[in-house]
Design brief:
- By secondary structure, the protein is α/β, with parallel strands linked by helices.
- The protein has two domains: 5-126 and 272-299, NAD(P)-binding Rossmann-like Domain (Rossmann fold, 3-Layer(aba) Sandwich); 128-269, 2-Layer Sandwich (Dihydrodipicolinate Reductase, domain 2).
- Helix content is 37%, strand content 24%.
- The chain is built from eleven helices and 15 strands.
- The strands form two sheets. A nine-stranded mixed beta sheet has the order 14-13-12-11-7-10-9-8-15.
- α1 (14-25) crosses α8 (271-287) and α3 packs parallel to α4 (79-88).
- The longest helix has 21 residues, at 297-317.
Amino acid sequence: MDKKYRVVVAGMGKRGMHHASAFQANGRFEVAGVCDIDPARAEAAAAKFGAAVKGTDASQIAREVKPDVFCFCTMADVRSSMIKIGIESGARLIAMEKPVALTTEEGFRVRQLVESSGVKVVVSHQHRYGKHYQAASDVISSGALGRIHTVYGTATGWMMHMISHLIEYMRWYNGGAEAEWVMAQMAGRGKLADAHPSPDYIGGFIQFANGVRGVVECGAGAPDVPEVDYWWRKCRIGALGTDGFAEVLTGGGWRAVTKTGSSSGDGCMNYDLDMPPYIQQMADWLDDDNLVHPCNFESAYKGFEIMMALIRSAAGSGQVALPLTSAANELEMLRASVSERKVLLSMAANAKEYLS
């Protein structure tokens, strides 16, 4: 009989509930402990999932349960402290929300903790499990586009929410090639005070070691995706080659044009469909070290470095080489360098988020 893995989930907001529900629905996991700084949330989650241990102190809950998996879906400014709790609890795998961190000062600490402990870490880039993301990937990897020369990603949501996803899937569609340097520009201060502090708009270029150029845009100035109605899902990720293109729309399916013709299909971001395989592959990795989770920390960290390099470049550093060799506080860079001028919009619908 397969081992059942015990899970603690810290942070019982929307994403924490998604994770806990998916863990509990998978026969390989048991939600043994839940935590939230709001006692009522912790109580409600414990009742829903039958968790024997509940409370407001993640460290205490983790020590008591001694989980196989420590999952945290907390705000982005406590990454290293939560990683430390997971490691000290003896968890074999830590599942965390993106982004990896808000600065490289924090990100370097997270990386050091992960590497020195040997713990497995999974970062929640679960959109890749959507059938439309998979279909676009299948076309790209088949060779039907000829020589890939460009990968791209756009989202109208702001950077700390969305760019981690864009970069992860751009890297996937480019075969995981290493990034050599970036260059970027940014505008707008409205979202600097957000819980996910960001410029209102950032756009930049990524030079990959295989010669492919990445183009990424996030925020108020990113292009509309008129085929998608729901604002948060107006994301487009794809690849251009000598013989055609293939792209996915987070809220609107996929499409491709190659020498042999055009093709397309449906699909939409759906936690009920995307979370089960994301969770199952955690069990697979716990069972077998060779079955590395596609959303592993090493991959996510490379995307995190690209994101931080884009900020450094936009803050006035010109081209920024990768990998990054020194830590910095990129949030201070943002606050010191983003112009006071109001951001210019790509579409009227962005005014509600960026100008209100």
